[in-house]
Amino acid sequence: MLIKLNWITLRVSNLENSLAFYNGKLGLPIQRRFESRGRQIAMLGIKNETKLELIEGSESILKPEAGISIGYEVNSLEEAVEQLKTLDIPIIRGPIQPNPHLRFIYITDPDGFEVQLAEHI
Q1: Nearest 5 degrees, angle CA 35-CA 55-CA 108?
Q2: DSSP letter string over the chain?
Q3: What pLDDT is recorded for position 67?
Q4: Where in the numbering of this chain does the VOC domain appear (predicted)?
Q5: Which end of the chain has the least Cβ crowding within 10 Å, N or C?
Q6: What are phi and psi of 82, to 5 degrees?
Q7: CB-based contact 32:19 (threshold 8 Å)
Q8: pLDDT tens digits along 36-88
């Protein structure tokens, strides 16, 4: 029945702050921005991959403490950690290596949602 995950939606308190984080700091491309029913929306993502949909709004359906995280793969965890230091983005957990083939860290976005950066070794 299901064939592909299209997007993951986060309701954010300030779209510009979120775009500065995901696009400006992490380099996730903005695919499009638009308004729908008075709400500012941005779709971000790498071509042909699952998109991250950011919807600006005052109400939050998913709370940061809900235990949900967004995971992205990086080429090198060491390089990612160095870039995060230069961007003043703190690592909240990790590095964690649950097996010989995977290492990851967690950071948070401007609304407190966890973002996992993982390297497959």
Answers
A1: 150
A2: ------EEEEEES-HHHHHIIIIIIT-PPEEEEEEETTEEEEEE--TTS-EEEEEE-S--SS-GGGS-EEEEE-S-HHHHHHHHHHTT----EEEEEEETTEEEEEEE-TTS-EEEEEEE-
A3: 77
A4: 4-120
A5: N
A6: -65, -45
A7: no
A8: 988 999 999 998 899 999 999 866 666 667 778 899 999 999 999 999 999 99
